[in-house]
């Protein structure tokens, strides 16, 4: 008998998890963040597992797909959403835990015991809780819906990561092209100013004419400075969207086709139904409503009290005495009506939030379609302007080579051509922004999310196996 306490303690401690400290070092964390680059060895391994574009490393060119993959690897916000999903999955095990029995032991002593009779009366009892009305199953169902909501929230975060990269990439490519065009404009204005100063010295023009030229040169110089600043800001935003410091982009040749065609699947009649039913945040909202439903079911089940079986034993002066008790709460003063009303209200709130979300999607898609049509019209206008300016420049160059036009005529045509190219670039930027808004409204194409969804599935299998 003297070994029973040791055996009981050993059984109780079997399967206990020991604490493993995992401190955070701000200095080391900052160093790791600052060391991130697009030629990172860990990123190479990630690409090898998730992309076919790994014939050479680092990549010769980085487009939207490869930069999105890099963001999936580096982006801290996505790591937070992934950790929250893991937390929700772990909560399923917590919800399914059964209540442990309770053991009570203690000594008793009879001060009136007759002489020669053992006065000690040790006793013990066990409390065996028994949940009723399927509460455990309802808790598990609720936890599973919470995990599904977290899963869809992670997918929505992955989409948002892709959207941020796309928007930042478009801005960066546009800013880079804009700087190049304005730099050409500034160079032409410099040459014009230099020639005008020579003409002023020769008495061919007045000082007022030179003043106009200098004002144009000053404006071109200010535009060039603004374009240079805009290019640096766009580069910083792209680095932020990916999750690397600005120097981490230095190894990359970044490309994006600003003349991408019309996404017909995003402007079709089926786009709205795809958005209203298939978006990750819509599925997350549906899971949240299911959580509210399960919460209400659980609160209703709590009206029925749980049972407690209480078998007991007492050694009373040489006699073995056994008892069996049954305990349960009498729902007389409180029948859980308050929590039930709260659960009903939460369900109504979840339903209202779902309706608001769908209304926002409809408005976002309508707005994106309107912007897309306007951008398309602007593209046509700017294309015509650009084509005419190209013809004028070609004509000016041909006449100059033939001796029928001056260098000033060519410089003027170059400035007009740069202005037309800037107008077309602005139209292309607006069109790509509108396409991005359409993609965000529908959350298509799904190719960008394939890696994130596959990672969730693999993690889900791993969590269940553990």
Task: Give an overview in words.
27% of the residues are buried. By secondary structure, the chain is α+β, with helices and mostly antiparallel strands. The protein has a single domain, classed as Outer membrane efflux proteins (OEP), CATH 1.20.1600.10. Strand 3 and strand 4 form a beta hairpin. The chain has a four-stranded antiparallel β-sheet, with no helix packed on it. Helix 6 (135-201) packs antiparallel against helix 9. It has twelve helices and four strands; from the N terminus they run αααααββααααββααα. The model has no long low-confidence stretch (mean pLDDT 88).
Task: Quote the average pLDDT.
Answer: 88
- What's the CATH H-level homologous superfamily? Outer membrane efflux proteins (OEP)
Q: Briefly, what CATH class?
A: Mainly Alpha
Estimated share of beta-strand residues:
5-15%
The termini sit apart by 37 Å
Return the string of H and E elements. HHHHHEEHHHHEEHHH
Kindly state the number of beta strands.
Answer: 4
Largest β sheet strand count, sense and barrel closure = 4 strands, antiparallel
Identify the CATH architecture: Up-down Bundle
Low-pLDDT segments, ≥5 res: none
What is the count of distinct domains?
Answer: 1
Q: Give the overall shape.
A: elongated
Whole-angstrom Rg: 36 Å
The spatial strand order of the largest sheet comes to 1-2-3-4
Helix segment tally: 12
Structural class assignment: alpha+beta
What oligomeric state do these chains adopt? single chain
* CATH-assigned fold name: Outer membrane efflux proteins (OEP)
